[in-house]
Amino acid sequence: QVQLVESGGGLVQAGGSLRLSCAVSGRAFSSYVMGWFRQAPGNERELVAGITPAHSTRYADFAKDRFTISRDNAKNMVYLQIDSLQPDDTAVYYCAARSSVGIYTRTTDYDYWGQGTQVTVSS
Fold it and tell me: Which residues have a Cβ under 8 Å from the Cβ of 86 and sit 6 or more positions away?
């Protein structure tokens, strides 16, 4: 059983930063492709960034300048650093794991999900 638990969300003023964390249980973590998704009210869940076991990354176009994904395979952790937060970044952020090769953008390509952490950015 693989479990993902996100943390680090909260209320922050525009221009601030947050570091989201995702703790992953299970011995196969180092073989998973990991992704961070977000879902704003009324919107579909979208990929923010993904990272392979070898630390190759892929970012959504909106995320290329202010978001940084990283992982620590020794600690079974994935992180998402968000800088210069904007009100449009307000969403629930989800961590996801994929047991097959490749960073994909569809939610259906991921096998395991966390419960999400709320990020709210005030203007």
Answer: 14, 121
Q: Are strands 77-82 and 18-24 parallel, antiparallel or unpaired?
A: antiparallel
Query: Is the separation of the CB atoms in 79 and 21 below 8 Å?
Result: yes
55-98 per-position pLDDT tens digit: 999 999 999 999 999 999 999 999 999 999 999 999 999 999 99
Q: List, in order, residues 6 or more apart from 95 with CB less than 8 Å away.
A: 4, 6, 20, 22, 24, 34, 35, 36, 78, 113, 114
The DSSP result for 42-64, as a single string, is: TS--EEEEEE-TT--EEE-GGGT
Distances (CA, A) of 25 to 60, 89, 107, 120: 26, 28, 20, 27
Yes or no: say if 38 and 91 are a contact pair by the CB < 8 Å rule.
Answer: yes
Interval 33-56: pLDDT, tens = 999 999 999 999 999 999 999 999
